[in-house]
Write the structure tokens for this entry.
Amino acid sequence: MQQFIVKILEAGFITHDVKRFVTERPPGYDFIPGQGTDVSVNTPEWKDIKRPFTFTGLKEWNYLEFMIKIYPEHNGVTKQLAMANSDSELIIRDVFGAIQYKEPGVFLAAGTGITPFIAIFRDLKKRKKLSGNKLIYSNKTSADVILKKELIKMFENDFINVITREHVIGFVGKRIDREFLIEKIQNFSQDFYVCGPEDFVSVITTHLKDLGATPESIIIEQ
């Protein structure tokens, strides 16, 4: 497996617990929207400890972008990333990922499960092929929503913002369950892209299959 040391060019929080990183891009380093790589902080204590994160930028950009949820209560990689800023270095590796766009459909995301979709959305928007897709995005609170303004601008009425732990104007205050899917989705023969915590993916996948979606039409990270 190849390894590349890249310098952080920009770093800053975009929500209360999600930090955006812009890094150098190694020559010839390529990816497909939806893919990611294993990332380490390039310090003696942490360079061999890696975690998977998704690229959120476009493949045409001359830099890489990540949006990473920080867990300060855990003495892990993201706590180190919380302290990393411009001129700190990361180690990235070969790309991987099974979430790749096929045909227009419904994207269902929870929390930072939106991150593999961001590059896909940006790519489709640039190519004027976002029409026909719908986004259902679930978070605990409105403060957790990543890139809310950009997503609203992209999807307009095809963006359903689900908030599970508060009732806020402009948000749907309930969980994504079987009844919700029946109410919001008329066609279960289209493609479905699902990403989020393991329990979320498992429950949503089960509901979709029960409602007529085929296993081949449900795209998840393997």
User: Anything to note?
Assistant: The chain has a mean pLDDT of 94. The longest helix spans residues 198-210.
